[in-house]
Amino acid sequence: MAIINTPLAAGKITFKNRLIYPPITIAKASADGEVTDDSLAYYEEKMHGGSFSLAIVEHCYVTQEGKASNGQVSIADDAKIQGLAKLARVIKGAGTKAVVQINHAGSCTTAEVTGMTLKGASPVQNPRQGGVPEEMTKTEIRGVVEAFRAAAERGKKAGFDGVEIHSAHSYLLNQFYSPLTNLRNDEYGGKLENRLKIHLEVIEAVRKAVGKDYPIFLRLGACDHMPGGNTIEDAVKAAKILEDAGIDILDISGGMCGYVNPESSEPGYFGEESKAVKAAVNIPVITTGGVKAPEDVEALLQAGAGDLVGVGRTVMQDSAWAGRTIGFYRD
């Protein structure tokens, strides 16, 4: 029996099937990060037919300092709630649950984008950007934690069904997690538990803001796929810590390598990491990466690579793909 069309109850959230639309940057926001009509039209087209159980909205910046690129959506102030609410209604109106991803780019941006000085875990070059950031002070770290808290609260007010904390693709939280970009000598650096300290503080703050029954996802850049970077063993250990901290669902992707795996181009190319994490935790795991055919989704589910499969870039090119895939297994 095919798994793809079976529901999944995950405590605080229920999925009608195992297919999700992952956070994919579309860069259609206004210059100040407002959701635009083009943004709404894009999601309306991709969600048409309600074939996805869940859509995770592309990363939204929690502060101007953390803006990753032009055209990115902002969740950095209360004035953005109204536009975000329109986006949540578009997705949910298609019969799909909606989660908003919140992010701080850290050193994975430019001063031209933010108008501000680059900040990061340590003053070392980001593998995905050319600039070297200033090391964040503890006061600045507390400010980041507060920014994530406030952003999550705005996401809930906007009507989203959950919030996803972004710690992948070489952005700020990932910069603290990775030994390649975290060379700190204080309690935020060194061993893995210390490199995850900011995550635990963000999770605690977000949980207080949204309440005990509101789903919190976390996208983990599990492995860096670079010498000296995080490994699968690190990812498994981190996943257990994040589960214990109260994360409801783990979304597995790449770390300093970004959203591609330099060592694999197979469908579900982060499947090795997500399978190891899934075996170690008791919460649902999302796997992604290069899925192109309907058979790819079911094969990953059958192999235990994840409980849910995200398909984004294929759907960017073919809006009808999800409907055909769900129909293929239903028929």
From TrEMBL:
Molecular function GO terms recorded: FMN binding; oxidoreductase activity
Ranges of residues in domain NADH:flavin oxidoreductase/NADH oxidase N-terminal: 6-324
Annotated keywords: Flavoprotein, Oxidoreductase
Keyword Oxidoreductase in annotation: yes
InterPro entries, per database record: Aldolase_TIM (IPR013785), NADH_flavin_oxidoreductase (IPR051799), OxRdtase_FMN_N (IPR001155)
Name under which the protein is recorded: NADH:flavin oxidoreductase
Phylogenetic placement of the source organism: Bacteria, Bacillati, Bacillota, Clostridia, Peptostreptococcales
